[in-house]
Amino acid sequence: AVVSTQSTGSRDLLIIMKAVSNAKRELVLLVCLLFIFVITFGSIMYYIESAHNKDFDSIMRSCWWVIVTITTVGYGDMYPESAPGKLFGGFVLTLGIVFLALPMTIIVSKFSFVYEREKM
Q1: How far apart are CA 96 and CA 102, in angstroms?
Q2: Digit-coded pLDDT (tens) for 40-91
Q3: Cα(93)–Cα(70) distance, rounded to whole angstroms?
Q4: Which pTM value belongs to this model?
């Protein structure tokens, strides 16, 4: 019987690590764009909501709302109350979902490439 020195779990972990390593440029770009996205839309939401809503009392708290919104966590700890804020919130949510979904196709294709290469 042939005894493998690597378990299936560690081999799978190595495949995932190689796929992430191959997608470094895309992941760095995603993080940079996410940072710009959060700061820009957090600032806009602060200026829209700060006069109407005490929860949006700083740009940093508004940036927190953007992070929670685009990741679709939605704690409910703060939310827009004005009509323009709600409209902009829907825009941020929609754009955030698209923004996070698009790079996933690249990462999945890199994973498939590494998986097929390692399987052979």
Answers
A1: 10
A2: 999 999 999 999 899 999 999 999 999 999 988 888 889 999 999 999 999 9
A3: 5
A4: 0.77
| Cα–Cα distance for residue pair 117/102, rounded to 1 Å | 24
Give the Å distances, CA to CA, from 114 to 6, 10, 56, 84, 107. Answer: 17, 15, 44, 46, 11
What span, in angstroms and rounded, lies between the C-alpha atoms of 12 and 6? 10
Collapse the DSSP code of 5 into the 3-class scheme (helix H, G, I; strand E, B; otherwise coil) and give the result.
coil
Q: Could you tell me if 64 and 29 are in contact, meaning their C-beta atoms sit under 8 angstroms apart?
A: no
pLDDT digits (tens, 9 = 90+) for 10-37: 888 888 888 888 888 888 888 898 999 9
**Residues 6 or more apart in contact with residue 48 via CB below 8 angstroms:** 80, 82, 84, 85, 88
